[in-house]
Amino acid sequence: MNSPEKKKTAVLLLGCPQVPVQTGIALYLISALRKRGVLPTVAGNRAARLLVEVSDPDRHYVGEVMDIDRCVGELAEKKRDFDYSFAFIHNDAGVTYAATVQALSKGAMVVLVYGEHYDQVAAEIEFPCEKIMAKAVHNPMPLKKKIDEVLNWVVLNL
Amino acid sequence: MNYDILMRDASFKECREYIRANFQEYVEVEPGFVLFEKHMIGVPPITIGLSGDVIIFPYTKPCYGTFLLRLECKEEADRLRALKARGKK
Known about the structure:
By secondary structure, chain A is of the alpha/beta class. Chain A has helices at residues 21-35, 46-55, 68-76, 92-104, 118-123, 141-157, and strands spanning 8-13, 38-44, 64-67, 84-89, 108-113, 130-133. In chain A, β2, α2 (46-55) and β3 form a beta-alpha-beta unit. Chain B starts with a strand and ends with a helix. Chains A and B meet through α3 and α4 of A and β4 of B.
């Protein structure tokens, strides 16, 4: 992690991109973090990464992008860490990846739980984290509103 | 690697419970543990089953959920048993 004079860092752990809100919310969160002085990195599988990169062709928002399994490997080998991890979760695999990163990182874990069955998925989360939850599938606004409510607190307090 | 799929599109919890219910011998490791040259993904503790030289372990992919895989490898089975023995000391 960074020393106090350096910018804080965050990793956005993208899940399977089958739920439409993921890419839009990821770009929104990247922008919101940058405005608060946090340097975001995106980690995901190939499809999730490409959706983010194609959506921001001139790289106004997106910075570093990496494979999610490489990210886990670098955390496990203690080659790098992040001040914040934002895990995008809409299925059991998302919970599993978030639990992995929570166990490996010294930074704060924030989970964004969305999708049709967000409450059932959230009930499977047993590790310590801050939860941002909304029933968002096609319309990103419920999740965006929740992010707007808590992001300042997250950046200032975690 | 030649592997068999015992379960597919399962939850991580289901895979852990299957291993504990069906294999007398198992090892528990933390996320990031290296198995077959890959860092393991999982909710801690990650349960890995052993049966002779056969290793039974969960493998998670973002779009496909968790698979429970069965793979024969004497070297890795020996390494896991050694790890387990060290943990008991």
